[in-house]
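Chain and conformation:
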Amino acid sequence: MVIRDGSILVAHPVHCDREHSRAVVYITESNAISTVGVALNKLSSYDMREFMDQKGLEWHGDRSVHIGGVYNPHALIMLHDSYWYSSNTMQVTRNYSISSDSTMLEKMEMGNTPDWYKLFIGCTAWSANELEFELRNRKPRWLFIPNPSDELVQCNSNDMWARAVDEYSQVVFSNYI
């Protein structure tokens, strides 16, 4: 199994640990050193407007911020459509990119926003081969979707885990037909 940028991990309904219960993680980068992603469906109590006020910027966009993971908890990361860019933007797939810089906030304050985006604090990460080992385990903690639909990536956080399990089931079923 090859983990590629843009893949999705879905917390296993039975074998996943409590920390990642019902998590849906979008892989933003996978290489020989590590695999990094953001939890798409873990909303925080953090309010983007309050954060922007502290920086002296006005915010008129989506106020919700997601908890991307426990690593680098002070980093603000934005997953967005690939048609938009900032000074520190990395393309993940043909449809999605990530950005993390102060320029993105200034652009967004001026009304230059992506058509679709989600904001995250922190990220999730695994060392080299750690995730592959977890996925090959007899009782894996994660289900793997190599090519998730845009509908899954962009769906409501509350419905995402159930939708991801359904999409995973369709992928598995289609492999047997």
Notes: The chain has a mean pLDDT of 91. The chain has five helices and ten strands.
